[in-house]
Every structure is written in C-alpha cells, then in structure tokens.
Write a structure and sequence with these properties.
- Helix content is about 15%, strand content about 20%.
- By secondary structure, it is an alpha/beta fold.
- The strands form three sheets. A seven-stranded mixed sheet has the order 1-3-6-9-12-14-15, with no helix packed on it. A four-stranded parallel sheet has the order 2-5-8-11, with no helix packed on it. A four-stranded parallel sheet has the order 4-7-10-13, with no helix packed on it.
C-alpha cells in the first residue's frame, strides 16, 4: 500500500474539487504545510488584497481543512484611518496623491493559521489574525481576533463558543504535535487521533510524551 503524497494536487481519485494546497502555490509569500487542503480548484483566488509592497505573509500549518468560499483578506485591504478621509487617492489615476507613510496605515502583520485547523464554509479571516492549532471556525464567521488552540468560534464577529478539550488534554496535544511526525507514525496514530474516548486519548498521549 502506498503512502499519502503531500505533493499530489488531487488527493481524491476522479474528484477535482478538493486539492492539497502546498503543491499549487505560486506566491512566495504564501506558505502552507503538508496535507492542508481546500474544497475548491484554486487556493490563491481565496487570498485577496495581497500586494507585494505590503510584505505580509499568509502562513498555514499542516493538515488544515478549508471549506469552499473561505476568504483570507490581507493587509492590502486596509485604508488610512487616522485622517479625515479613508479614500485611497494615491492608488487611483488622476489624483496625483502621495501614498501615506506605512506608519499611517493599519498594518496588522502576517496571518498565521496553525495545524489541524478546520475553517468552515464562507468564513472570512481578517489581516494579521493568528489561529491556534486544532481550532474550529464555524461557517460564515468573520474572524478579526486571535483564536487560542483547540477553541471553537463562530459568528460575525467570531466569538468563542467553547474549548474543545480540557486544558490538560490541550497541553498534551500541543506538546505531542502529531502533525510533525512521520507519515508512518501518523498512520499508526490514526486510531488514537480518531478516538472519541478522550480519557483514553489523554492517558495514551501521556504515556507517549513521558
């Protein structure tokens, strides 16, 4: 039996509308880990207002699951907010306006999505947001604030619904980092990773990280 290949674009035979993102990336400022996928033909069309002159990056970890219609809005969408008008005269022909200083623009930095994050359909991720490992973002959510690991959020603006697990189990999972293990190790861990008996999971991960 062959191992899964993170460099294959279509991981499901005879089905084109789901792709592993990493092997499709052309923009050097988009960095995506192995096996993260999107339910669409083209990932980069979901990254908007992304201009080289801003210098920001979109960084996505491994094993993320991104539904159709998700949009990552980057810093190029921001307008000057500390002046009387937010109108971007400098970007449009005929106004002959000087661009504002970078310090006058609300630059939010890189957008960073952790590992094993599930982003629901039509969610919008705003510039500079950091989403922790194992988080879940509900469909149609607008995420403008950082999300802690293994937290479920939903809504506009996205609000915390609950933590997925106890603090103890979350701490163990963040230490265990199953997504960084070899393919062979992960295959052996699948029964544990898909087990709903969380006490059993906690005990086994404790023994594996001891």
């Amino acid at each position: 039996m062959t191992n899964p290949d993170p460099n294959v674009i279509h991981p499901i035979k005879n089905y084109e509308k789901e792709i592993y993102i990493k092997p499709t990336i052309k923009n050097k400022n988009i960095i995506v880990g192995d096996f993260s996928y999107i339910a669409d033909y083209d990932f980069e069309s979901h990254v908007t207002n992304f201009y080289d002159f801003n210098g920001d990056k979109l960084i996505i970890g491994k094993f993320c699951q991104i539904a159709s219609g998700v949009e990552f809005i980057m810093n190029g969408a921001n307008h000057q907010m500390n002046a009387v008008s937010t109108f971007p005269f400098y970007t449009l022909e005929g106004w002959n306006a000087a661009p504002p200083k970078n310090s006058d623009l609300p630059f939010k930095g890189d957008t960073v999505i952790g590992n094993d994050v599930w982003i629901g359909q039509n969610a919008v991720i705003l510039p500079g947001v950091h989403v922790g490992d194992g988080a879940i973002i509900g469909a149609n959510s607008v995420v403008g604030s950082n999300i802690a690991p293994y937290t479920i959020v939903a809504g506009n603006p996205a609000k915390i619904l609950r933590k997925r697990f106890s603090d103890e189990l979350i701490g163990l999972l963040l230490k265990f980092k199953w997504w960084d293990k070899s393919i062979e190790e992960i295959k052996n861990l699948i029964p544990l990773l898909t087990c709903s008996n969380l006490e059993k999971v906690k005990n086994e991960i404790e023994s594996l990280t001891a």
